[in-house]
Amino acid sequence: MTTVLRAHAEDQYAEELAILAKNDDRTRPPGWKLSPWAVTGYILGDGDQITPKYIGPRRIVEVAVATLATDRALLLLGVPGTAKTWLSEHLAAAISGDSTLLVQGTAGTAEEAIRYGWNYARLLSEGPSRQALTPSPVMRAMAEGRIARVEELTRMPSDVQDALITVLSEKTLPIPELNEEVQATRGFNVIATANDRDRGVNDLSSALRRRFNTVVLPVPATAEEEVDIVSRRVDQLGRSLELPRTTTGLEEIRRVVTVFRELRTGVTEDGRTKVKSPSGTLSTAEAISVLTSGIALAAHFGDGVLRPSDVAAGIVGAVVQDPVSDRVVWREYLETVVRERQDWRDFYRACRDAG
């Protein structure tokens, strides 16, 4: 058994990718491991041998895949927790067979992360040469005809972002120190992700934005869809972390999802009561985290049955990000909404005690 905590998508789902490749008789773009049709099938699943990796509108996935088959890069845009990183990893795994060519965007990301750096020991002893050059993930993707991933693009400084313009428009990366360049080979493209809430931090220039086709990933449209997503991911995480088996009632999952959706949208499920929204995002990913932690509590410190007391502390921690304003929002929601629901009495008491 592997000791890797989280395998890359192309390793974890190697069997599914092999099945798709074997049965894929459609046209594959140059450098692609699968046809666009098979890539979409890998992402959405087939209800039989291929498990769904992303649950959402099929057309969104089709547009994303079709974009990568052209000369335009793909920008996945959405609020936190809408599976932007998850989708980009699986797209890269299905198209290139390699999801590891990754640049993580932060305020401290340097231009070398997009272009290239130097092995300074060799640079000082030998001078500028190809051997002394340290390629970035983007440069490697260009040379090998693969997909490069750029996470949190809008967190990067503007001058670092703009290092992508020549790469995306000219499909070449100049190396002026060597009077050379690296030209992209067929199969190369870029998937970037950006956060809706980061607009204005380091907003994309119009020149860079024009090089991307933007696909907005929505939050789950219905509570049932979100419950389905959370249930699947909680089960997958439980198995990958080898947590002891617990009785995970759908009722508790539905309750956590309901709380998050009501606080996120500012209105109760029946549309009758308006509620204040906290400062946090309360995303689907956070709901998954709350329930996974609850399962660990129930398995190791409870009776193996997921109960309100197991998820209460996680919910309070997710909602109350600002200890002053968010605590007021949470208490008001508890007293005006949760307390009035007859079948939520245990949950109300657990959350009140945890808070």
Topology order in helix (H) and strand (E) letters: HHHHEHEEHEHEHHEEEHEHHHHHH
Shape: globular
Low-confidence residue ranges: none
Cα radius of gyration in angstroms: 23 Å
Distance between the termini: 41 Å
Strand content: 5-15%
The whole-number mean of residue pLDDT values reads 91
Structural class: alpha/beta
Helix content: 40-55%
Count all strands and give the number. Answer: 9
Largest beta sheet: strand ordering? 2-5-8-1-9
**Contiguous helical run count:** 16
Biggest sheet character? 5 strands, parallel
In a nutshell, what does this entry contain?
Helices cover 47% and strands 11% of the residues. It is an alpha/beta fold.
Question: What can you tell me about this protein's structure?
Answer:
- With 355 residues, the chain is an alpha/beta fold.
- Helices cover 47% and strands 11% of the residues.
- It contains 16 helices and nine strands.
- The protein has helices at residues 9-12, 14-23, 36-44, 58-68, 84-96, 120-126, 137-144, 158-161, 163-170, 206-209, 223-240, 250-265, 284-301, 308-319, 325-338, 345-354; strands at 73-78, 102-104, 116-118, 133-135, 147-151, 172-175, 180-183, 189-195, 212-216.
- The strands form three sheets. Strands 2-5-8-1-9 form a five-stranded parallel β-sheet. It has a two-stranded antiparallel sheet with strand order 3-4. It has a two-stranded antiparallel sheet with strand order 6-7.
- α2 runs antiparallel to α3 and α11 (223-240) crosses α12.
- It starts with 8 loop residues before the first helix and ends with a helix.
- The mean pLDDT is 91.
